[in-house]
Design brief:
Four copies of one chain form a homotetramer. By secondary structure, chain A is an alpha/beta fold. The first copy, chain A, has two domains: 64 residues, Phospho-2-dehydro-3-deoxyheptonate aldolase, domain 1 (Alpha-Beta Plaits), CATH 3.30.70; 258 residues, TIM Barrel (Alpha-Beta Barrel). Chain A is built from twelve helices and 14 strands. Chain A has an eight-stranded parallel sheet with strand order 13-12-11-10-9-8-7-14. In chain A, strands 2-3-1-4 form a four-stranded antiparallel sheet. In chain A, strands 5-6 form a two-stranded antiparallel sheet. In chain A, helix 6 links the parallel strand 9 and strand 10. The first copy, chain A, is elongated and about 65 Å long. Chains A and B meet through helix 9, helix 11 and helix 12 of A and helix 9, helix 11 and helix 12 of B.
């Protein structure tokens, strides 16, 4: 159950609502309260519809909603209209989940100033709006390159200033959130950290939006619950990112569950994008999967692009070079147009 | 290694080639020989390039090809141009893998004359070219409806005559091949039978094309090898059908591996279609997945449609009703056009 | 619902029971009827407990049982005591599911007289009771050895006569059941054919017991339903065989789901054995998994053993040589004893 | 390549060795150096055997080892004898990987003083040596109980003093390592954090041993690499814990990959235990899986036990009550004895 308070509700009004909810046997969920004038009630309590009626009758209450899904704030029951996540950039606000798909592009790892600047300029020219690049890298082996850390963040920030692109970069642990927040416009939570709950809670207390990659073997329901952690702790701006799941198939690095985009569009109001690079692990397959992602209704893409994929310090096999990236962007144009027409039709969503 | 003979090659010419191949330590693969004037050599033999040179020098030999993939006839190495599988129908030949995507539609099970005739007329009007319907049904439980058998086949054949649609229907065992062949235009091999090798061999000896669904947990390589069974036993007309694989995810009935379409388009010259109904198990997701399938480059779709899905004897939850099917076909039109433009460009394939 | 008739029930008595069942809205399941004086009712009918009462009151009825599981005859609800499957051999009847674990051993493929005779003599000496060996081989590639067919069956039958071992061998299609039945004591259904329903039905009409391997990605419920096909069609003697399932892990050929043995022991009265060879795909892991299988309560093992694994025509990497097999059998002895003590305790089962 | 220095090696000696290694084109791995007088070299360098020879010839070098596995310190190549991880307790040092299997037991969550004390006393009496209990709980939903945090740790520490049991408890993020270290004898890394590299690095700098649970969909190789993170950063005491992997099967909560124990025993010198509670998710299956785990060669078990599983705040369905736990421990005794005999045989390992 979610109760939203009227705009002028006082802390005392909220406390009264909480008391009333408790009198029906429910617990108050702490995280969401103050910031948003929204009270969440969870647990197994008494007569739900009587409780809803009693709350609705209180003058300070705007709306009281029973929500049956285990995820509350991220569910379609909570909000019927689609959420647009707004990302600031020197070139103006970028809208994910808005009127057109948005492409994020860049290398797997930040390797240096020249690599990033060349990539940023070229992908911006090709139509990307957000620059990706890892400064903290989760690597299977302790002996592989672990990222340039703050030096890498500064390189990204510099490219931001010079190109007008916004920045998305990975944060791997709650103790790094404050540092990364100084540089990035959009936090990326990697697959291995989708259920790093300390990190999710810390990001819930940030004001920057979060790109939440799906865990390697996470169900869609678990993924929604992970987003709920962020939102319930105060940050409503979460974007899902399908990047392939782990299966028995080895012809591709992962199995891209594109239908998950359509499933999410039924279950949540939050945007969802697709990462065709990690989903396939193979450069030649990226454009085809990108095309299918836009066709199925994704709100955007995140794509690995590198000036010299064969010299990349990580993930070269799945990176497009900058010409290939440009060709893909042009190929996607008519699919983007069909996407926009569908989104503008009143029946959609 | 595959050796193709010149058109006027005699059995004696072929025998000489076989002897030469054996002299290098390779075995002759029996299945393919006579019918197609093609000799296949397998096994671990001696100097491969010397053998190829020796064979190429023989006057009756047109071409001798070393093929490194474990699948030979179905590989791109064997044939660079895409194969068009031709399916006869009262309304003319249907081409799968040709200039436009082809849609197959109909109910999961043949339930009776009226159901099939209504479905056939409506899906034909909406643009489907092939009618699907099961007369032999593989059901998890022995207590579920097992299909109308020959009675069902006769109903399909009648609908074929009246509507001009071609027929695709499942055959479950080699001992039924002769019976089903009397009625169908296209054999369907179901997921559970993808590695029913006795069935694949029997279909290799048939002259009707084969729609080969991917096994629930089959790798793409195993799938290609299953097709190789059919082709190596004499039937070159195989169409792949991606219908979702089994994973840990339960939000959808299966996980639709759409990237497999792009992988197959790199590895084989044979056509590939997608079944969005089994891939998702949920009616509301079918149009979105169908759209993505065309966008990624599938040569067609096979879709469950039923006059009254809520009364269907099987798979009602994933069947579109006939109005929904029609709406989906109209929605797909601009995607089909983009598909055709791409296919007509010289660089494609 | 399952109704068992008294011993002297006539066809007319059975017909009356069937009519009564139908009057409550249920359907009669055809397969099981006459042979066993058991009537199965399925489908969605009227008041189940009233129907049970009415049937129990009929003089010809011994027992009427509501069974909630989708599998009926194979469920613990149908039979509380464990079924012992009896297999004839020249050396006397072998009991699977009886007082001690039974080991089946032999090569993957029958390669010739000498290979089989050497293997049979040695594994018999080491304590195996049943000789395994494939005469019809399901191979991923059409170019791999497909088995010696009837010649291989004859070789097995000869070894049976000379050593007293019973024989287990694979049958791949319903059209081969009559042939294989002439030679084998126990049919093996391979993983790829676990849901080959035409084959399961044909085996249901045989009088020889069936070893039913689990499908590569079959759930335990689907496996039980596959056994139900055999039993519902008239053959009550089914043995389950866990041989590993397909997962993302590649360190072993398959992932051995040993807990499935414990799950089956809760859900069914039928015996279950384990195949540590296919489960691991690696010789060095076979003894450890065999030990765990006995410890968890399996009724036996089926193990690949070959005089010269490095020269085996198939599956050499997972075959023990005959000395290794003997060592494993000695290592298992104390575990077999613990198994037997547990089985003899009244509380067990 | 791993180089171990003689005991009296000085920092200057180590620096010389590092220079020599670099002169062959390899990089020095920072983490492992000083503490252990071991130098790790990674990357792609020049002539490996020449480099090994040159290093071996240096007077300060004890041993220079080429290691081909991507994991170095945890591999059998690095150490042939099995590592015994020593855990201090008020009742004396506990050895994991020593002469007998060790059982850890306790509730999923620390709920309060009484629950923990009752559990601790009873499981100690039954033969457990280590008390488990979560004070920081990774829960799928933000609305579920998240653990008592430091209050819970203090309760565990109190039980430790009163019963002599050692403590194992989960740490979820690097920023909690210092806090948890004050209370626990053994850190637990949960499945969702197996690749939380910031956490693994922090634990590498701790002097307490680490119980590393396998990730839900982690390969054995990835698991070994995760352990390598801990060891390469300075902490040699890692214990693996198989707790089931995620597959398509739903009859059990996870699929217990018991063969992984045998695989690890081939690949690493570190101990491995099994968690039959999470592996199955079902109380009735726990004893059977525990038995199989000991039989296959696990160095111990971690088992959920609770005074009143039906009232547990989490994981009640898979928790044994304290009588059931005691019965299981007695049932395991003969299997433990067989385990010990095998371990004492010279051929083992």
């Amino acid at each position: 159950m979610i109760v939203s308070m009227k705009k002028n509700a006082t802390p005392r009004d909220i406390a009264e609502v909480c008391d009333r909810i408790r009198s029906f046997g429910y617990r108050i969920h702490a995280g969401a309260g103050d910031e948003r004038s929204i009270v969440g009630a969870v647990g197994v309590g008494g007569d739900l519809s009587a409780c809803i009626d009693a709350l609705t009758a209180m003058p300070q209450v705007e709306r009281a909603l029973p929500i049956s899904a285990p995820y509350k704030f991220v569910s379609r029951e909570f909000r019927q209209t689609r959420t647009v996540v707004k990302i600031p950039s020197p070139a103006g606000t970028i809208e994910i989940g808005g009127d057109s798909p948005v492409v994020m592009a860049g290398p797997c790892s930040v390797e240096g100033e020249a690599q990033i600047m060349e990539t940023a300029r070229r992908v911006a020219n090709s139509g990307a709006r957000i620059l990706r690049g890892g400064a903290f890298k989760p690597r299977t082996s302790p002996y592989e390159f672990q990222g340039l850390a703050e030096e890498g963040l500064a390189i990204l920030a510099n490219a931001r200033e010079k190109t007008g692109l916004a920045i998305v970069t990975e944060v791997m642990t709650d103790s790094d959130v404050a540092l990364v927040e100084q540089y990035t416009d959009l936090f990326q939570v990697g697959s291995r950290n989708m259920q790093n709950f300390a990190l999710l809670k810390a990001l819930g207390r940030s004001s920057r939006p979060v790109l939440l990659k799906r865990g390697l073997s996470s169900t869609i329901k678990e993924w929604l619950m992970a987003a709920e952690y962020v939102v319930a702790h105060g940050n409503p701006n979460v974007i899902f990112c399908e990047r392939g799941i782990r299966t028995f198939e080895t012809a591709t690095r992962n199995t891209c569950d594109l239908a998950a985009v359509a499933v999410l569009n039924e279950l949540t109001h939050l945007p969802v994008i697709v990462d065709p690079s990690h989903a396939t692990g193979k450069r030649s397959l990226v454009p085809a999967v990108a095309r299918a992602a836009i066709a199925i209704g994704a709100d955007g893409l995140i794509v690995e692009a590198h000036p010299h994929p064969d010299k990349a310090w990580s993930d070269g096999a799945q990176s497009l070079n900058l010409d290939e990236f440009d060709a893909m962007m042009r190929m996607l144009e008519p699919y983007n147009e069909l996407w926009c027409e569908a989104r503008l039709e009143p029946a959609y969503a």
